[in-house]
Amino acid sequence: MSAQESVSAIDHSRTAYGDEAFSRYLRRAFLASAGYDDVDLDRPVIGIAVTTSAYNTCHREMPALADAVRRGVLEAGGLPMEFPTISLGEILTSPTSMLFRNLMAMDTEEMIHALPMDAAILLGGCDKTVPAQLMAAASADKPVLLEVVGPMMTGSWRGERLGACTDCRRLWARHRAGELDAGEITQARGELVTTAGTCAVMGTASTMACMTETLGMMLPGGATAGAATGERLRHGAATGRRAVELARQGAPIPREILTKHAFENAIKVLAALGGSTNALVHLVAVARRAGIDLSLTEFDTIGAKVPLLVDCKPSGANYMEDFHRSGGLPALLKELEPHLETSTVGISGRPLAELLEQTRPREDWQHVIRPLGDPLGPPGALAVLTGSLAPNGAVIKTSAASAELLQHTGPAFVVEAGQDIARILDDPDLDITPDHVLVLRGAGPVGAGMPEAGALPIPGKLARQGIRDIVRVSDARMSGTSYGTVVLHCDPEAAAGGPLAVVRNGDLIRLDVPARRLDLMVDEAEIARRLRDFTPAPLPSRGWRRLYAETVLPASQGADLSFL
Ligand code: FES
């Protein structure tokens, strides 16, 4: 076939020189310099988004995974073409990777559009990478498959199993309480993150991997296979092979997979997992991109029918490697089958009902996935609250909270994002009691990019008294690996003039999770008067942060940019 007649994907998305034939000619000339001839270039082209970065330790094994994916593409007769996008490592990105989720989604979406490819495989893993890639996929007009690096393995210290990051937080809390000295906490550090891969517990990364598989955007079995395992590589190769089949078919595109039923299934799985609160923000954002109407309250009404089944930290006691041994997400879906809509079809091309027929859970590990008749916890692992302190909604992970604090009234103690909060809370003379409600504000999307700062440290004075939990309220997020009675995502946020902005030290706050309420016990007229006097802080002066602050949607709407 001549260059002029070619219809191969490599000739699509032509560079605009005003002469299409010349654009095709030039493209093949440059690709020849990279060793590609027409036999290569007339195959289905599979773009592979690679997010390897020295700043993203969770993705350290991604080159091996990309090799496996590439092998799968070649085996099926496709042409693999790797391309880089932004990579967001949770721990090394300042001030928070969430500030850049939408930027990564834009980067990925635009590259899928701009580069010639018949289908795309997006390789991610660490917290915000998968949500960003799902958002990008939902905006794509060609088949897209997601693959993740998989979770890390656990370590061991003094006979105790450890894994990032629930144990990181737990040991640090013990250090703050004076139970572990500097030498001990340093020694333990070497066992917290022992391999590449995403966090070892049901944090945001694992939650979103499970959401991706449930939605049908990943081949079955992909959410939980460990980063260090051959199974992960085999799954990567299978993803490569499947991408070529989808490329030849030209379907399904993500919007055909991301249906309302798929999101409802995801919400039920989220409840059974006791998954990360971050999933609420991310799923709403993905649904919005896919044109699906998904409200915050649906997480409560739909999820409230499903009990907590997965015994994984931070809601339980086990780790992702245990969940995988128990059969992983397919085994959980099998247990949840009576609650699910099983006509959904993902990138495998087979209805969920058919996949579940072939699912055989590992009986020797079934203690990690509890049966519906003997759940780990009651329905409602994630609750959505409203009230005078969060008129548009707030979120709490009840499965990781203290039961005795789920109905609590106490005086506010207010700190602001940007303050040296640990120093304030460690003041030995701090006038604070276990009854106090810690309030963090200015940490919403507009205020600070919505960092995972909501699980404020227990004030040092109380920690040394053995207090491990008090009620905390904020417009921030918290890590999926965190735990405690922590109310998050208060909307409207303080920086946008929400009531959180005018809470004063000593004001009473009432949390009533069974009634789904969060209220500032201050007269309505007084709240309105205070809000009239409130002056928001100026927005960032330039660049991405300015664009973000000017256009970001509230947390309850997914915190995407309004124009996307
Ligand atoms: Fe990457 Fe937890 S820091 S997944």
Biggest sheet architecture: 8 strands, mixed
Amount of helix: 25-40%
CATH architecture of the largest domain: 3-Layer(aba) Sandwich
Total tally of structural domains: 3
**Pairing-aware structural class of the strands and helices?**
alpha/beta
Radius of gyration: 24 Å
Please mark out the parts with pLDDT under 50 across 5 or more consecutive residues, or reply none: 1-6
CATH superfamily of the largest domain: Response regulator
Number of helices, where a helix is a run of at least 4 consecutive DSSP H or I residues: 21
Count every beta strand, where a strand is a DSSP E run of 2 or more residues: 14
**Beginning-to-end CA distance, first to last residue:** 39 Å
List the bound ligands.
Answer: FE2/S2 (inorganic) cluster
Regarding quaternary structure, what we see is single chain
Q: Report the top-level CATH class of the largest domain.
A: Alpha Beta
The CATH topology of the largest domain: Rossmann fold
Q: On the 0-100 scale, what is the average pLDDT?
A: 94
Shape: globular
Provide the β-strand percentage band: 5-15%
Strand order of the largest sheet: 7-8-12-11-10-9-13-14
